[in-house]
Write a structure and sequence with these properties.
This protein is mainly alpha-helical and about 200 residues long. The protein has 10 helices and no strands. Helix 9 packs antiparallel against helix 10. The chain starts with 14 loop residues before the first helix and ends in a 5-residue tail after the last helix. About 25% of the residues are buried.
């Protein structure tokens, strides 16, 4: 259970304090040296709250970082269940959305610090990345089962090809209009059944 899911007795939580703490964590995480530069003391000072305010909400620095990273990634839309192309395009557009790039450097710093912070990176992958990948995985599997995609499709490879194409090569990189659609259409040319 992460800090934002915990509920304690006593005074009601301040949404303003929560937001300030999350924003301060993301700001520190986006700066050099990334994860190493995030401490409860630094977050408290930047957010203008006491350390006890943070510890009441999050039991550790890692729990705080994970909640902040989760807050920076808007939930992916639940696929409508239309065609595979429609669903993949909707997901690809969401993944290239400007809002998600606001804290792109945070994600780069966490991935870049995986060797120094393996437990944090493992939890980040498990709790934040994998649920998002699973949405894409389900669309691809549905496409295979419904005959839209080739029966011999390696779902994991196709998913990696799609998602890898939607990750900026640099934190500040933006994608041109129509990029998400072009990625999906290019992928589908290789994995659709001949009848499509």
């Amino acid at each position: 259970m992460t800090g934002t899911e915990r509920r304690h007795g006593g005074r009601p939580r301040s949404e303003r304090a929560d937001k300030a703490i999350i924003e301060a964590t993301l700001d520190l995480l986006a700066a050099e040296p990334g994860v190493a530069g995030v401490s409860i003391e630094a977050v408290a000072a930047r957010a203008g709250v006491g350390k006890t305010t943070i510890y009441r909400r999050w039991p550790s620095k890692d729990a705080l970082i994970l909640d902040a990273l989760g807050a920076a990634k808007a939930p992916l839309p639940e696929p409508s269940g239309g065609s595979v192309r429609e669903d993949l395009t909707e997901l690809a557009r969401a993944l290239t959305d400007e809002r998600k790039r606001r804290y792109a450097r945070c994600f780069w710093n966490v991935a870049g610090g995986a060797e120094k912070h393996p437990e944090l990176y493992a939890r980040y992958k498990r709790d934040i990345i994998e649920p998002r990948r699973d949405i894409v995985r389900r669309v691809l599997r549905r496409g295979v089962g419904g005959g839209e995609l080739r029966a011999d499709l390696d779902v994991e490879v196709a998913m990696s090809m799609l998602l890898g194409s939607l990750v900026p090569r640099r934190p500040q990189e933006t994608f041109p209009d129509g990029y998400a659609e072009a990625v999906v259409d290019t992928l589908l040319r290789g994995i659709e059944t001949a009848a499509q």
